[in-house]
Amino acid sequence: MIAEFRYGLEARIGLHFDFESPIMQAWSLPFSRVAYGDADGTLFVLSVGQSSVALHLSGDETIVETIGSDMTTLDLEHHTIDIKQQDDRIIQITEKSVVLIDSFGR
Description:
Blueprint (H helix, E strand, L loop, with lengths): L1 E5 L2 E5 L11 E6 H4 L7 E7 L2 E7 L6 E4 L12 E7 L2 E6 L3 E4 L5
Antiparallel strand pairs: 1-2, 3-4, 4-5, 5-6, 7-8, 8-9
């Protein structure tokens, strides 16, 4: 949630939604780099319990939807420990795997 004060008035910009599981950590990635399809926007990876959850925020920032493991190259079956993005590479470390995504795919 982004809050901004201008001339003494508070403006709130952003989406608010409830999530049923406690979120341990969260990362944001460009959707087009880690998911299948032509959609734009941002992918949020949430580390929850024994697995991970991927949420797609649309490019116009009006819709948030959960995407399944069949729609992304990331490992959502296991708890994500860390995700790093450097240059054209994305590395996801889970309890059971290391996923490397570069400009050529998985």
